[in-house]
Amino acid sequence: MPVVVFSCLGHLYIHLCMAFYFVIILALEVDWRMPYHELLELWTLGALMIGAAALPAGILGDRIGAAAMMVVFFLGMGACSILAGFADSRLTLFLALTGIGVFASIYHPVGIPWLVRSAGDKKGKALGFNGIFGSLGTAVAGVTAGALIDLVSWRAAFIVPGLLCVGTGFVLMWYVVRGSFDGEIVHTEKVEQPSREDRVRVFVVLLITMFFASLIYNSTQTALPKTFELRHDGLAGDGAFGIGMLIAAVYVAAGLMQLVGGHLADRHPLKYVYLGALLVQIPLLWLAASQGGVSLVVVAMFMVMANVGALPAENMLLAAYTPAKRHGLVFGLKFVLAFGVAPLAIQLVAFVAEMTGEFYWLFVSLSICALLALSAAIWLPRPRTADFEGRISEAPTQGLQ
Fold first, then answer.
1. Is residue 122 part of a domain?
2. Scanning 60, 97, 277, 399, which has its CA 20 to 30 A from the CA of 160?
3. What is the pLDDT of residue 396?
């Protein structure tokens, strides 16, 4: 149970700290009198570090233990968030945001495999439940940042989440010192292993699909606050809180979809669950390019739901074709790619905003990215029939060796 609690809280906090700046930036535009695209670029290196440091974080998690690394995650990311709240210059804010990215890099390659190893035969359900907290983190980021900006200041929007994160880190440290996580058992059922050819195929295909899916997710997360500000047609009122509420609605719905995605991944072939989630994103992203008001919010809900609903199946595919003792390494590689795309997404959004002042062509481009991801995912090996929770138990794939 402690693994589930701290893994879910970690997922909430990391997505909160990855998303709150996109709302805070709307207040900084006024307070610091700086253009949107210049403030957005201050987060570029931090976003890059979430991916760049994921591999060493995953390797350290394999060597010194997931629980100890999660303590470092909570304390480090929380402290940097507090520092950002006291920033009085572009340089100080830039360094604090970069620090958030460095410590945030620990969660996914460490916390997700930590949860998978403790989930038994309900990996999809556990990943879906965990995914709800990730989406809630993004949703809470919009609401809390908007509320704290309107009621106190943008500084409080950094400091309050930072204090919560640090406090959680000290509680986890107490559990670690007590030895609550000593002797963690990795489930190693004796099942038939996939062929080397299938492992290579899955890894290469997922590299492609994860690149495009991450570009879509990060670009959408970056651009939605500004898109809603430009096109909300009176739904958000005049303050940052209204924008935050619209963002919250989108990501709460997306979080619930991850539970559905996990349920489907436990009961149906992972390949088809994954393909379906990629397929529905294509028309939704195309529609988002031109919608406004209520229709924009509804389309945004469904496109983000489809994007994050694919994650349980994606993580289970990766776990199924990877030895448990290498989960930290392989998930680290995944998130090097997944979050390494974030700076590209930020630069893409900043470029489109500077050149056009709108995001029509951004969403059209992301629709094409979803099509390319779908085209790659078709080449995944045919589904195994016995189970789909991260184990392989069917005869070798025919025609794909």
1. yes
2. 60
3. 31
* pLDDT of amino acid 397: 31
Cα 302 to Cα 16, 146, 197, 210, 287: the distances in Å are: 20, 23, 35, 19, 11
Sign of the C-alpha dihedral, residues 386, 210, 196, 190? negative
Residue 166, CA distances (Å) to 3, 11, 71, 311 in order: 18, 14, 9, 27
Give 24-47 as a DSSP string.
HHHHHIIIII--HHHHHHTTHHHH
Residue type, 229: E
> Residue 119 — pLDDT band, cuts 50, 70, 90?
low
Helix (H, G, I), strand (E, B) or coil at 181: coil
pTM of the entire structure? 0.72
Dihedral pair phi/psi, residue 144, rounded to 5°: -65, -45
**Three-state DSSP state, 186:** coil
Structural domain contains residue 234:
yes
Range of the domain at 314: 2-180+194-377
Residue with tokens 């989406």: 135
Written as six digits, the tokens of 280 are 């529905």
Q: How do residues 157-210 score in pLDDT, each as one tens digit?
A: 999 999 999 999 999 999 988 877 655 544 444 445 677 777 788 888 998 999
CA 103 distance to own-chain centroid = 15
Task: Calculate the dihedral angle through the C-alpha atoms of 23, 27, 28, 32, rounding to the nearest 10 degrees.
Answer: 170
| Helix 342-356, helix 44-52: angle, nearest 10 | 160
Q: What is the tally of structural domains in the chain?
A: 1
Q: Are 101 and 346 in contact (CB under 8 A)?
A: no
- Domain with residue 366: its CATH number is 1.20.1250.20
How does residue 384 score in pLDDT terms, banded at 50, 70 and 90?
A: low
The answer to whether residue 392 sits within a structural domain is no
Lookup result for tokens 């210049």: 38
Residues contacting 30, CB < 8 A, separation 6+: none
**Where is average pLDDT lowest: 26-30, 159-163, 238-242, 289-293?**
238-242
| 64 falls within a domain | yes
Average of per-residue pLDDT across 208-219: 92
Q: Which residues contact 355 (CB under 8 A, 6 or more apart)?
A: none
